Amino acid sequence: MQELVLTVSLLAIAAVAGAFLHVLRGLALQPRASAEADGLARLRQRILWCAGLVGVVIAVATLLPWPHAVPAGHGVVPVHVRGSVWAWELDRTSLPVGVPVVFHVTSSDVNHGFGVFDPKGRLLFQTQAMPGWVNKVAWTFTEPGRYRVLCLEYCGLVHHGMTAELEVGSTS
Amino acid sequence: MTMHTVAQRAVPALEPARLALVLGGLVFLLMMLLGFLMKASQAELVPLEPQLFYEIMTAHGIGMVGTAGLTGIAVLWHFLGRHLELDERIFWAFLGLFLSGVVAIMGGIFLGGFAAAWTFLYPLPAVSGGVWSPTVAVLYLVGLALVGVGFLLVHLECARALRAGWGGLSRALAWPLLLRGAQEPVPPPTVVAAAAVTIFNTLGLVFGAAVIVISILEILLPGVSLDPLLAKNMIYFFGHVFINATIYMAVIAVYEIIPLYTRRSWKTTRIFAGAWSVVLFFVMAVYPHHLLQDTVMPGWALVVGQVLSYGSAVPLVAVTTFGLLAYLYRSGARLDLPASLLVLGVAGWTAGVMPAWVDGIIVVNKVMHNTLWVPGHFHMYLILGQVAMVWGTLLWLARGSSGSGLGRSDRLLFGLYLLGGAGLTLGFLVAGASSVPRRWAVHDPAWTVHDLPGVFFALLILVAACGFFAKALPGLVAAGEERRA
Question: Which residues of chain A have a CB within 8 Å of the CB of B318?
Answer without folding.
Answer: 44, 47-48, 51
